[in-house]
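Structure (tokenized):
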């Protein structure tokens, strides 16, 4: 299994400072959610890095994940127990956003590491896949 330093950096994302400001029970619950979320994101990036050897597919995956970020955020926000305070929700969502931004950055950097060129050769300025021969959109 290849292991990029970029992926290792993503895996070391720490939430202690932000989460520790919350009440103990809520902090523990949110920390557990964030740790699992981070682990899932690292696994996705590692899997992509290890198994995808096609530039267009790698770029398309970035595009799909970018579009999926907002849906994931909304879904999780709706599923949170009512017992989570507004401050807890804000901390959770801001830290999820941070992980997702770092994940997308890791995908862009691992693309360059793996293929020796910028992923933006395959993506539009918005980070979504360019239309190439009608294949993506």
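Design, position by position:
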């Amino acid at each position: 299994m290849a292991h990029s330093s970029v992926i290792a950096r993503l895996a070391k994302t720490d939430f202690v400072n932000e989460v520790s400001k919350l009440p103990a029970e809520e902090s523990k619950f949110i920390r557990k959610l964030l740790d699992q979320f981070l682990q899932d994101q690292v696994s996705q990036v590692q899997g992509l890095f290890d198994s995808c050897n096609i530039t267009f597919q790698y770029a398309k995956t970035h595009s799909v994940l970018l579009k999926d970020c907002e849906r994931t955020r909304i879904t999780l926000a709706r599923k949170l127990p009512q017992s989570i305070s507004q401050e807890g929700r804000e901390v959770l969502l801001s830290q999820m956003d941070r992980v997702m931004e770092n994940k997308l950055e890791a995908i862009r950097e691992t693309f360059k590491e793996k293929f020796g060129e910028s992923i933006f050769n395959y993506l539009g300025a918005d980070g979504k896949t360019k239309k190439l021969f009608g294949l993506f959109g």
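Reviewer-requested clarification: The CA atoms of residues 86 and 92 lie 10 Å apart. The chain has five helices and no strands.
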